[in-house]
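---------- Forwarded message ----------

FYI, see the LysR family transcriptional regulator record below. Original note from H. follows.
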Amino acid sequence: MLIGRSRREELSVRRVRSVLAVVGQGSFSAAAQELGLTQPAVSQHVKQLEDQLGLPLLARDAEGIRLTSGGAALLPALRRFLAGNEAILDHLASINQGTRRIVRVASPASFAALHIAPVFKALRTDFLDHILDVSEIDDAEAFLKIRAGDIDLGISSVFTPSPGLTFEPLRQDGACVVVSADDPLSRSAAIDAETLIATPVVRFPIGTTSDDWLSAVAETVGRLPDVVAEVRQLVTGFQLVRQGLGVTLVPEDAARACLLPGLVAVPFADRSLVRTFGMVLNESHVPSDFERRLIDGLRGRGN
């Protein structure tokens, strides 16, 4: 629905921030505490934004506060609106501090830890006036931000051809099984599909490379895995493995970036499971000298 001319005043950052805080916290009182406002002020911001847009964004039901269908549809745009405003303020602050450039990168956490961090360190003495802002994301949201110019450089393992974006492969990693050092499997040269499916498994959410691989292995074996837990964060999953509750199938770089004492990463026997990292750029973006040096450094860390 188009916004009528009478409601086409500029969106208020405060109103959008209040709506997103309520969504994030699940309550008006918690959102007010987060923002340092009174609850009536947050409620007023939400109502004012709903009135301006001409549709309800939030609703209450037996389970608490939820997004309406209209609110859910607008949520990504509202988040981008607020992120864009904060990016401007960050850049202004950097100018006031004498810092000329904030370079924004979207990357999977493991790639950022293992590859972007050392390259940035090597460049640091030549670019003391640059700040690196890393968003640890690898999904469609990252591609939208790159296309919009909110991200300067993206690293992705899930890229699909997209208008306006270019992709350059950088490196690959395979699959490994993370096990407790006390587990007899830790002494294996490799773990095969049958053994993995027959062993209790800590699973990561649908849409992750780890889950995609586990599903493919289960289909090959013809049997569902024995899942003992499903977690979102790598460190949580590894802690469960460390306690001897199961094993987990992950990319090798993920294991290298987050391997805890008491854990062993054993190669997975099927080397056809491969993840490809690549660089995603807006085809109209002209890299700065720092970005070119960063890109060259990442190219140099390929397989």
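H. also flagged this: Residues 172-275 form a domain with the D-Maltodextrin-Binding Protein; domain 2 fold (CATH 3.40.190.10).
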